[in-house]
Recover the amino acids of this structure.
């Protein structure tokens, strides 16, 4: 009998030990996947924050630029920079034939003459002189310099010619190739040229979308939640509404995208591809999340506080507005931020309402066409150029950073402002 | 209190029935409450004494399924009448709950809330005065005067309950309802509250629900005994405890059930 009991006890201890082991290995697995994921993104993406520049001597020849004597600022703006730009690249190899000159031109970014123009506009006294100008290297050479490009491929399978590589290596040896922080990744809009593509347009698009989403979803959701929780009678109809709010939270996001397409664009004729439409569509998605969070935190306010206020002669409205709602705000706000973070990472509905369009301007208002960060990731991931690979990861890093900051903020609000009940 | 030898009746309840859904919780309660006296309501758990207490300031309105029938007359006015304004009623009839429930705000804000919503103070000075007198009356002033702007939830249980009493008297109610105010407190805090109740009856009519018969005997002048939703017996506390008419009352008081 006694022995039996001991066996039973041992069995229980063993069961607990096993269970702990299962739990620990589950957590280990989760951490492992997370680490691999983060490592992969960082190792691919970090190089996108560096940009390769070629330092090329440019002669600002007034004649080639079609400039008169003593040109005005306007003249400088209208001048022809293409020829001096072309010439400065061709001058890198005086013996180059026509094909090779073409190759030389392709070593720098597509709009390299604009960089030369900017240099002159900054300092008009350069006319007639020669100066070393930083020119953005083409995305392929950028990848070569970062070591991401397989140089040992046969030439006909490469986008960089042997000749370009030869000149490039000479420049590297002369110290005429430099890697600097890639500011343009944050300040430029999207571009077909990987070396010029930035996230400014999609970043602003995301910000505008989230603001529109917040301004619509927050008031509507909070009012709905307060009414349902504090004022509405509890009957079958309100039960039905509650069930459907929960259902709404489970609707796949693409369905909301179709709704946006069918109603906002087709019926109301709102401008396509804009953060306004994106924000409204996302707000439909965020609405149930905020309602549920707000109701949960209203429920968490102890009834004794409501009774205390009512017994003091406060009306229902005063009780709700002076006590219940302020006490529920930390929970509501952190729920809202988490809802917005979800909306920020949403791609499918935005693709449907046209925010997937190629936008090479930075939107100034929610009515301008824009992309959004997750859609930008999608667009770049589809692009063939090698230069976009690191950009995808870098964009993911920015988006993740954003989400982490938002979630951190939600946590801080929750911990700092949540009241402790005596 | 007797005026010209006549007992002054503050609250007069006639044929009060209370239902929770289909279940009847109170049966035909007729109970008069004397002015400026402490009336204790005693009885075993679930006998309806708290339900009756909550009828007096219509706190049962909060419960959807609860229905109250009959008349409760305070100052010649039936509070169950449709024309009765609940906000005005609750201003006149304060309530202290079983568990201390201060607002999670400062001590000052806890007291000033009632006077603010009822527009009882015209200036900051007046409000300061109301806060001070309320806290003094609740015998809490000396303990908290240096930390009026600290949260009320940081006080001890007994202090919190006195804060709730101070909050209740801040609007100068005529009647104070107390629903087992000492059940969550230790004996010392209980003794302080009991002393306070004795002091408060000068200005207020007090009705206290209690599980402790010793407490009822100590603080009250009148006692009502409830059992299974009926008012079995009521009268002066002396009579109920020393010489009850009803067998059930006697059994309960002597501890045979409950």
């Amino acid at each position: 009998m006694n022995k039996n009991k001991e066996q039973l006890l041992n069995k229980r201890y063993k069961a607990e030990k096993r269970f702990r082991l299962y739990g620990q290995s589950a957590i280990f697995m989760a951490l492992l996947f997370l680490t691999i994921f983060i490592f992969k993104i960082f190792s691919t993406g970090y190089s996108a924050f560096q940009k390769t520049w070629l330092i090329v001597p440019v002669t600002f020849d007034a004649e080639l630029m079609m400039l008169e004597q003593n040109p005005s600022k306007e003249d400088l703006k209208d001048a022809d920079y293409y020829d001096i730009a072309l010439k400065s690249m061709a001058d890198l190899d005086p013996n180059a034939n026509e094909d090779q000159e073409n190759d030389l031109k392709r070593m720098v970014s597509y709009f390299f003459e604009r960089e030369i123009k900017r240099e002159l506009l900054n300092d008009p006294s350069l006319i007639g002189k020669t100066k070393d100008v930083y020119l953005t290297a083409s995305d392929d050479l950028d990848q070569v310099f970062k070591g991401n490009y397989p140089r040992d491929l046969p030439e006909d399978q490469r986008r960089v010619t042997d000749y370009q590589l030869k000149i490039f290596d000479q420049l590297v040896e002369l110290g005429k190739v430099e890697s600097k922080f890639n500011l343009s990744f944050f300040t430029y809009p999207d571009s077909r040229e990987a070396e010029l593509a930035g996230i400014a347009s999609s970043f602003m698009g995301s910000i505008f979308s989230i603001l529109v989403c917040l301004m619509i979803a927050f008031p509507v959701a909070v009012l709905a939640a307060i009414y349902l929780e504090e004022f509405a009678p509890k009957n079958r109809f309100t039960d039905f509404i509650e069930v459907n709010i929960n259902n709404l939270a489970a609707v796949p996001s693409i369905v909301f995208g179709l709704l946006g397409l069918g109603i906002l664009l087709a019926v109301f004729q709102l401008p396509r591809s804009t953060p306004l439409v994106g924000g409204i569509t996302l707000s439909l998605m965020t609405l149930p999340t905020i309602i549920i969070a707000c109701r949960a935190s209203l429920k968490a306010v102890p009834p004794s506080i409501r009774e205390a206020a009512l017994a003091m002669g406060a009306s229902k409205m005063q009780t709700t507005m002076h006590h219940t709602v302020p006490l529920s705000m930390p929970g509501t706000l952190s729920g809202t931020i988490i809802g917005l973070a979800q909306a920020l990472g949403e791609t499918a509905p935005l693709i449907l309402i046209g925010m997937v369009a190629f936008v090479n301007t930075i939107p100034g208002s929610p009515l301008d066409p824009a992309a959004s960060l997750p859609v930008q990731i999608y667009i770049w991931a589809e692009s063939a150029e090698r230069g976009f690979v690191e950009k995808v990861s870098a964009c993911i890093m920015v988006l993740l950073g954003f989400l982490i900051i938002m979630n951190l903020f939600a946590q801080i609000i929750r911990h700092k402002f949540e009241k402790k009940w005596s | 209190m007797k005026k010209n030898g006549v007992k002054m009746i503050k609250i007069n309840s006639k044929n009060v029935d209370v239902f929770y859904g289909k279940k009847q919780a109170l049966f035909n309660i007729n109970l008069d409450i004397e002015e400026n006296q402490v009336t204790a309501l005693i009885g075993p758990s679930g006998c309806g004494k708290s339900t009756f207490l909550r009828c007096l300031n219509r706190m049962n309105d909060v419960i959807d399924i609860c229905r109250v029938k009959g008349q409760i007359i305070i100052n010649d006015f039936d509070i169950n009448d449709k024309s009765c304004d609940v906000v005005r009623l609750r201003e006149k009839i304060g309530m202290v709950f079983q568990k201390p429930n201060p607002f999670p705000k400062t001590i000052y804000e806890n007291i000033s809330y009632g006077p603010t919503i009822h527009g009882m103070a015209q200036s900051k000075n007046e409000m300061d005065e109301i806060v001070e007198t309320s806290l003094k009356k609740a015998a809490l002033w000396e303990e908290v005067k240096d930390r009026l702007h600290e949260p009320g939830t940081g006080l001890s249980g007994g202090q919190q309950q006195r804060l709730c009493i101070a909050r209740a008297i801040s609007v100068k109610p005529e009647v104070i309802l107390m629903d087992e105010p000492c059940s969550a407190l230790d004996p010392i805090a209980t003794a302080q509250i009991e002393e306070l109740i004795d002091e408060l009856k000068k200005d207020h009519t007090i009705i206290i629900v209690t599980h402790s018969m010793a407490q009822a005997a100590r603080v009250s002048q009148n006692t009502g005994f409830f059992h299974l939703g009926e008012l079995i017996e009521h009268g002066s506390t002396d009579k109920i405890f020393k010489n009850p008419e009803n067998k059930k009352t006697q059994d309960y008081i002597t501890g045979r059930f409950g």
Observations:
- Chain A has a mean pLDDT of 89.
- Residues 2-45 of chain A form the longest helix (44 residues).
